[in-house]
Design goal:
- The protein has 71 residues and is of the alpha+beta class.
- The protein has a single domain, classed as Ribosomal Protein L30, Chain: A (2-Layer Sandwich).
- Helix content is 25%, strand content 24%.
- The chain is built from two helices and three strands.
- Strands 2-1-3 form a three-stranded antiparallel β-sheet, with no helix packed on it.
- The radius of gyration is 15 Å and the shape is globular.
- It starts with 13 loop residues before the first strand and ends with a strand.
């Protein structure tokens, strides 16, 4: 028997991440982390799913990004 999972409407929380610092002078791991978040320029904003993996990436570059809760 195949079971199907039902998604609850609105159950996926999201966060908005904005790059506020430059990658000039940063090492390649920091740059790769920002790329993994979908950022690359100062002022660029991405809305991402709020998950432990995304929170871990944000923690590594917390000095370069600002985080806001987006519904």
């Amino acid at each position: 028997m195949a079971t199907t999972k039902k998604k609850a409407a609105g159950s996926a929380a999201t966060i908005s991440v904005r790059q506020i610092g430059s990658t000039i002078g940063q090492n390649d791991r920091i740059r790769a982390t920002l790329t993994g978040l979908g950022l690359g320029r100062i002022g660029q904003t991405k809305t991402l799913k709020d998950s432990p993996s995304v929170r871990g990436l944000i923690a590594k570059v917390k000095h370069l990004v600002a985080v806001d809760s987006a519904a």
